[in-house]
Request: fold
Amino acid sequence: MELPADLPTGLAETIEPLVRRVLAGNPSAFTYTGTQTYVVGNGSDVAVIDPGPADPDHIAAILATVGSAKIAAIMCTHTHRDHSPAAAPLKQRTGAPIIGCAPLTLSDDGPRSDEAFDTSYAPDRVLSDGESVSGDGWTLQAVATPGHTSNHLCLALVETGALFTGDHVMGWSTSVISPPDGDMAAYMASLAKLQERSDRVYYPAHGPAVENPAQLVRGMMGHRKQRERQVLRQLESGPQTIPDMVPQMYKGLDQRLFGAAGRSVLAHLIDLENRRLVARDGDAWRLLAAA
Reply:
């Protein structure tokens, strides 16, 4: 993976008057240039969104960005290890409460192309859909968006129309949907939910800001529906296993990523099974007559 050059790791970038961004030094195939932590507010108190990995240099960069302001809330969109582990040491350093998604820990049950879950995450307050946290000149409202994980939240900055989308919507890549916790039907419903909103800009945890959110969400929904049609076409010739299907569906993909791609195929198959369009026979999957 080739990353953009001269990335300002550890330095605060002001991306709009109420929002600063600090990039963690954890680039990879699934974090792109790294986890982007956002500091919201420029008054007496601020919120820190997705504090990222428990890396001392990144925590120091967050604290330097916050400066003399009080951290009113440490907020996590979900609990993968590239998003939430710094919450605990940041709370220990500042006394700030951890507010946001619900705790969730699962063992890894298959090849992943994203991080495993953070077992250290312990929120002081869990936000339900529509609940908010406010500070000096800012209000962040929870938008429940399960799918990538069952506990995923987006956070809407009411004053400016910005939406912090975590891993739910990213401009550089589609979100990983990996069962058992990743759920394709929930993910599609969450995309439809965002489509009904009128957010001005998305700030994802990885990759550049999304300046055309409505257009991107439409495209993402179309992409997933196209993948679903691919799955159904693969089964038209008879029952197949996921390892049979992946090379045909992901032509040109590095074989080292076949296992991770298979998780996405599995997510589609489970959704289709719940809709009574396919059924499984052992490791193989087949079309039902109604499909």
User: Anything to note?
Assistant: The two ends are 38 Å apart (CA to CA). The CA atoms of residues 241 and 282 lie 9 Å apart. The longest strand covers residues 70-76.
